[in-house]
Design goal:
The complex is a heterodimer of chains A (224) and B (122).
Chain A: H1 19-54, H2 56-63, H3 68-93, H4 98-129, E1 132-133, E2 137-138, H5 146-181, H6 191-215
Antiparallel strand pairs in A: 1-2
Chain B: H1 19-39, H2 47-67, H3 75-99, H4 110-121
Helix pairs in contact in B: 1-2
Classes of the chains: A mainly alpha (224), B mainly alpha (122).
Chain lengths: 224, 122
Amino acid sequence: MAATHPAHPPGFAHQFETVEQQRDAGHLGMWIFLATEILFFGGMFTAYTVYRSLHLQEFIRGSHELLVKFGATNTAVLICSSLTMALAIRSAQTGKSRGTVISWLLLTWVLGAAFLAIKLRYEWYRDWVEGLIPGVSWMGGGGHTPGVKMFMCFYFFMTGLHALHMVAGLGILTVLVVMTARKRFSPNYYAPLEISGLYWHFVDIVWIFLFPLLYLIGGRYPGS
Amino acid sequence: MVEHPEQAADYHPPHIVPVPIYVAVFVALIIFTALTTGIAYIDLGKWNTVVALVIAVCKMVLVVLFFMHVKYSKGLTRIVILGAFFWLGIMITLTCSDELTRHWEIVPQGWSAGMHIARQLF
């Protein structure tokens, strides 16, 4: 192979004309994947919109069973993790030491794990104890009407699908830490970091919409 | 084949976002989160949902433009992103235009009532 074409610099694949073209192709490919993800979650948001308008009062009662403080805390935790992810990529771009990149990645990992821990311990576990999980542990919180159950189903499917994406994200971050430790990245090549960053930020955006749509229906003011 | 592609004449290095911009976006996102939570405790009637969604869209735009570097990206990538949201819009708009303009019958309470009607029919 080496005899038929010149050797390429580390991380530069031979099918590309320039490093810039390779980078743009990577971004484009990841955004096409994220487009499918937008429509994947979009299906749930569409179903949510329809059923919310059909059962608005029951959706409000169901929403009031959720704890805003944990939803809001988790929103902040995810925003922090997006910042640390962006800084991890930036330290690779600017040629900072591997230790710096790994530190930002591990901090992102810890924040992602903290999100899941809060979700499991203070929300889903409590929902199970209080009987808010239709079909698993249901004691009719918010009223024994189909619309409230419907809301809780949407809550668990949407937050559950989001949590699965978070778990996948933690796996990706682990791989990135190993790749960084093995000196795979340089200021000339850090595409896996950047592409994974796009995924991580996308999962953050999904939560940015889930928080008001699930926790804040009908407001929380007195008499709401 | 360019042997040192980073030295090509028309090479554009990746845009490196300054740390203060990342921090400013982060602070804005946290303020928006506090705002959306706080406004939920104020009675705005139907506007509570509208305000919450407007804030969520603002947060999304900040994340997409700066954290996801779309402000510095190529036109083709932007078309894919706009296309994704356009198709999402089609899905939501057409589904709602169907589902929300039907005349719905009152749903029988519980499955037993449904089974009772089914038995009468068949």
